[in-house]
Fold this sequence. Notes:
Blueprint: H1 2-14, H2 20-35, H3 44-71, H4 101-115, H5 120-149, H6 151-159, H7 179-204, H8 214-234
Amino acid sequence: MYHKELAQSGHRLFSVRGLNIHVAIIGAAIIAWYTGRTGPFESEAANCWWQVAALATAFAGAFWRVFTSGFAALGTSGNAKKEAEAAELNTTGLYSLVRNPLYVGRIVNFTGIAMLSGSWVFGLLTYLVSVMIYVRISMYEEQFLIEKFGKAHEEWAKEVPSLLPRLHGWVKPKYKFWWKRAIRREYKKFFQLATAIILVDFARRGFELPEDMTCYYIYGGIVVWRVGMLALTHIFKVFDGVK
Length: 243
């Protein structure tokens, strides 16, 4: 009964899971504006390393998702909004190490973004809440996969953990890496990450522009790229049929 209730709550969370990154970004910006700090330490050098760790964590989660999406089987629910989808059961590549690698990427990415705030408390809280959310969502998807794939899913689930990757048992990806699908699924996440970096920095400065505008000019270029991707997606239909 408890498992079923968690799966039901996961179904509700599934359709709004894309909002989590916005909460992390806005929360990090508010904290950075309020405290004006780059890290939880007294040492400026230590806080600098905290920011490096935050960026490394955020980008690690983002690139983990790119790797997962590029090798995943067609017809899976990477971009599904309302219901889980699965034309076949993913069991190779990162799916041979953890059953929900996309969610692992999200948790790591969100944690890194939260760490940009300079607050270890917000970083830890974001991590714990993200785990709680994706445990429930993964249970909902597991229920769907069990109903569709039965014994095959049972055997896979016996060996492969849900959200904590194992360090053995790697199986070569069944399909070749498809850049077009990886870009289609993940380019928004990189734009959101770039937005988080700039917004948190801007908030930390009291919403005043720095003397050195290099990073802000680079972000301007990223915004232009984002608009171009929207045109390719919605006007030129470059990604039609790519899920």
